[in-house]
Design brief:
Tetracycline Repressor, domain 2, 22 helices, 469 residues, 6 strands, homodimer
C-alpha cells in the first residue's frame, strides 16, 4: 500500500536477473527461491526479499504453492517486511498472518501507516486482534482502533493519519522550517500537499508542495492556499472517494470528520487499488463470481461460484417449463428444437451487451437525470436495429437449411421481438436494482438472462403454435 | 486530463445549488442550463462553464441531447475551456471539435499540456490537423508533432513534456532557486518529483518534492536522489505503464527515449484513466461490445455490437447442427428438448465464471510461470466439484419433474462432463489467445460459449441415444 522508498531494486533484481517484462518476476528467480525454501536456506530468502520492492517480494511469495508459502513465511519470520505482507492477496495474507506470532504481527503493524495497519489487523479474529493491540504502545493502538471503528469500505478506513497541517497564519518559511525539524516518523513518506487549518483544526484549504517550493519564504500560506474542491468525510464510501479522485484528477485529498476537522489524508495509490477492484468486481459479478484471487483455494472458489450456478439451475428449469408448454408443436416440428437455442442464445447475447453497457455507465456516473431516458431510448433503438439485422439473417439461414418458409418467418418475427425485450431489460434491470439500493452488477445477469430465455421460448414456440399448427 | 487549479468550485456551484452527491451535477442546474441553451443566453452559459471545474463543465455539457450540445458549443465558442473539451467523452469530443473553428482549436491546443493537446488533435482528420498545426507557434507545433509521432496507446503519447529536471551536481538551494525564477509556462501545474540528469540529459534519478522541501539548501541533490525503480520508455504500451504505476504505487514517473534521455513525465491522473478504461474494456469485451459511451449515437452503438451478434448467430447455428444429428432421440423423448437448454445454459455459466476469473488474473499479471499450471488445476477442480453438485441437483429435479430415472441419470452424467470441459476451456481459451499475442478478453467468449454449447448438446444427446434408444 505505501511507497517504501528504502527499496529501490526493480523486480527480479538479485544476481542481475533482469526480467523481460518490467514488474514481472523472472522465472529463474522463482526457481532459485523455491529451491531455497525447500533446502531451508534462510539467508538467501531474507536477502532476496529485502532486496526486492515489497510489491515484488509479495508477488514472488505468491508464486509458491500454499504449503511452500507457509514454510517460506516461517523461515523469513521477523524479517518479512510489513509492506510486503500488506501487498499480498487476501487468501495468502490470511495464511501469512496465521504463520506469524502475535509479537511478530505487533512489530509489523507498528511500522506501517495507520491505513495499512488496520488493513492487516482486519483479517484477524477479534480475539487475536485484541491480544495484538494490547502489546502495542498506547498511541499506535489508539490510532489503529479509531481506524478500525470506521466501516470497512469507508474513507475513514482508507485514510492515513500521517499528514502535514499548518495553521493559516503561517508563512511559507515557517511551514518549511516546521517540516525540516519535525520527527520523520510523524510525517508521511511522501506527500503532495500541505493542509491549512484554523485554530480549531478545521480544514481551510491546501497548498501543493510544488507551489510551496516555488514561493518566497515570506509569502503567507493564506495567499497560496486553494480551498479544497472536494470534501472527503470519514464516512464516505470508498467508491465515492475513487470517483472524486478520478473526476478531479487528485493525487491526494484531505479527510475531515463531521465537524469539519482534518483527520486524515487519502493518497491516490490507495485509490488506484479501489478503482481496479471495483471495475474487476463488476466484471466478475456479471459472470456470477463473488470473489477470485491468484491463490484462492478450491474450497473458496467453489463457495464463490456455486450459489450463482444453483440459482441459474433453478431459473433454467423455470425457463424450460415454458418449453414444456409447447411440447405438442415440437413433436410436430423437430426443427424447432434445433432453432430454439439459436433464438434464445443470440437474444441472450444482445441482453448481455446492453447489460454490460448499462453497468459500466452506472459505475461511471453516466446515468443521472435526463441521461437515463436517453440511454434507455438508445438501448431500445439499438436492440431493435440489431434485432432486425440479425433476426432476418437467421431467418434466411434457416430458410436455406430447412426450406420451410413459414418456420423462417417465425424465426424472424420471434427474434425481432426478443431482441427488443433483451435490449430493454438489459438496461432496465440494473437501473431498477440501483434505484432499490442494490449493486446493479451483482444480480442483474440472472434476471436479464432468465427473462430473455423465457420470453424467447414463449414467443418463438407460441408463434410457431399459432402459425404452424 | 490535467488538474486545473484555477477552477475550484465543486460541481453544481452557481447559485449555491450544492448537489446531493459530490461530483454529480444537480438536476436543477441541468434544467437551467438547458433553458439557457434554448433561449441562447450566451452569458449565463459562459459564466456557468467558467465557474465549474472543467470535468464538471464537460459532464454538464454531456447531459444535453446532441443537437443542444452542438448549439451550446456554438454559443460558448472561444470561451470553452480547453480542459473541459479534453474531459468530454469520445463521441461528444468529436462533435465539439466539429463545431469549433480552426482558430478556436489552435488557441485551445496552445493552452493545453502536450499530452492533452495531442489527445485532442488526434480526433481530427489529417488535413484539418495539418491546417491547425500550421496556425500554431513553431515550438508548440514541434512538441505536438513529436507527441503524435508515438503510437496511440504508448507512454510517449501519454506523457507530458513539461517537467522539472536538474543537473546532478546542483544543490537543493540551486534547484529551488531555479524553480522560483523559471517561467510558469515552462513548469507543470503541479509536480511531485524533480528529475536528476547528467550533462547528456540522461536520467539519473528522482527527488520527491517533499524531500527537497525538508532538506537544507546546501544538500547536494546527489545525496537525496533515488535511482528510478522503473524505467518507462516512450514506446512502452500504456497498459504496461498502468501496471507499473499500480505495482509500485507511483504518483508520477519519468519517461526516457531509447538513449536513456529524459523526454517526458507521466502523472498518475492520466494513468487512472487508463486503468479504468482497460478494466471496463475487458468487461465490455467479454459481453461482446467493442465500445460504449454516454453519448454514443445509435449508429455507433449498432456498429459496436452487431459484429459479435453476427458471429454468435453463426456459431449458434453450428452448435445447433449437433442437435439436428440427434433428431431421432428428441422425436422419441420430447423431454430432452426441455432439458437440453438447461444442461447447455448452466454449463455455459460455469464457463463464463472460469473465463472472467482468468481474464482478470491475466490483466493483473497473476498468470505467469508456475501460477498458470496451478490456476488450471484450480479451475478444473472447481468446475468438477461444482459440476458434481449442480449436475446431480439437476438430475434430482428432473427426476421429480419427469419420473424418468434413466433420463435423470443422463442429465447428471452429461452435466458433470460438460462442467469440467467448461471450467477448462474457460481458462485455456484466454491463456491461448494471450500466448498468440491476442487480447484474451476480446474473442474468448465466442470460443468458450460455442464449444460448451456443442459439447453439452453432443454429450447430453449422445448419451441419451446410447442409453435411451
Amino acid at each position: 500500500m505505501n511507497d517504501a522508498p528504502e527499496h529501490d531494486t526493480p523486480a527480479g533484481a538479485p544476481d542481475s536477473q533482469q526480467p523481460d517484462i518490467p514488474g514481472v518476476i523472472a522465472p529463474a528467480m522463482i526457481e532459485q527461491f523455491e529451491e531455497a525454501v525447500e533446502s531451508g536456506d534462510r539467508d538467501f530468502l531474507k536477502r532476496t526479499i529485502s532486496e526486492l520492492h515489497p510489491a515484488d517480494a509479495a508477488d514472488l511469495l505468491e508464486h509458491l504453492p500454499l504449503d511452500e508459502f507457509r514454510r517460506a513465511i516461517n523461515l523469513v519470520d521477523a524479517d518479512l517486511p510489513p509492506e510486503a505482507v500488506a501487498e499480498l492477496g487476501e487468501d495468502t495474507r490470511i495464511a501469512a498472518l496465521g504463520e506469524l506470532s502475535d509479537d511478530g504481527i505487533a512489530a509489523m503493524v507498528e511500522n506501517l501507516e495507520s491505513d495499512d495497519a488496520s488493513f492487516l489487523l482486519n483479517d484477524l479474529s477479534d480475539e487475536r486482534r485484541t491480544r495484538i493491540l494490547a502489546r502495542m504502545p498506547a498511541t499506535d493502538r489508539a490510532a489503529i482502533e479509531s481506524s478500525l471503528a470506521f466501516d470497512e469500505e469507508s474513507a475513514g478506513r482508507l485514510m492515513q493519519r500521517d499528514f502535514v497541517a499548518a495553521p493559516i497564519f503561517w508563512t511559507v518559511g515557517q511551514a518549511i522550517d516546521h517540516m525540516r525539524t519535525v520527527d520523520d516518523d510523524d510525517l508521511p513518506d511522501t506527500f503532495f500537499d500541505i493542509y491549512i487549518v484554523d485554530p480549531g483544526f478545521r480544514l481551510q484549504g491546501a497548498v501543493p508542495v510544488s507551489t510551496l517550493l516555488r514561493s518566497t519564504r515570506e509569502t503567507p500560506l493564506k495567499d497560496l492556499m486553494k480551498e479544497s474542491r472536494v470534501k472527503l468525510t470519514t464516512g464516505m464510501d470508498q467508491e465515492e472517494v475513487a470517483y472524486l479522485f478520478q473526476q478531479y484528477n487528485l493525487a491526494s485529498a484531505p479527510v475531515v470528520d463531521e465537524a469539519g476537522r482534518l483527520t486524515g489524508m487519502i493518497t491516490v495509490d490507495d485509490v488506484v487499488d479501489v478503482i481496479q477492484e471495483e471495475a474487476q468486481e463488476d466484471m466478475l459479478a456479471l459472470s456470477g463470481v463473488s470473489e477470485s484471487g491468484v491463490n484462492q483455494s478450491i474450497f473458496s472458489a467453489v463457495r464463490a461460484r456455486v450459489p450463482w450456478l444453483a440459482i441459474n439451475l433453478f431459473t433454467a428449469f423455470i425457463a424450460s417449463t415454458v418449453v414444456s408448454l409447447f411440447s405438442n408443436v415440437i413433436n410436430h416440428f423437430v426443427t424447432l428444437a434445433f432453432l430454439m437455442p439459436v433464438v434464445a442464445g443470440v437474444s441472450g447475447n444482445c441482453g448481455s451487451q446492453s447489460l454490460a453497457v448499462a453497468v459500466r455507465a452506472i459505475a461511471e456516473r453516466d446515468m443521472e437525470g435526463s441521461m437515463v431516458m436517453r440511454a434507455i431510448r438508445r438501448e431500445a433503438a439499438t436492440a431493435l436495429i440489431n434485432g432486425l439485422l440479425i433476426a432476418w439473417s437467421a431467418a434466411l439461414v434457416s430458410l436455406i437449411l430447412f426450406h420451410a418458409p413459414v418456420i423462417s418467418l417465425v424465426v424472424g418475427m420471434a427474434m425481432t421481438l426478443t431482441f427488443t425485450w433483451a435490449g430493454l431489460i438489459g438496461i432496465l434491470a440494473p437501473l431498477t436494482l440501483k434505484r432499490l439500493g442494490q449493486d446493479p452488477a451483482v444480480s442483474s445477469s440472472v434476471f436479464v438472462l432468465t427473462s430473455i430465455d423465457m420470453i424467447s421460448f414463449f414467443v418463438f414456440l407460441g408463434l410457431s403454435t399459432l402459425i404452424l399448427l
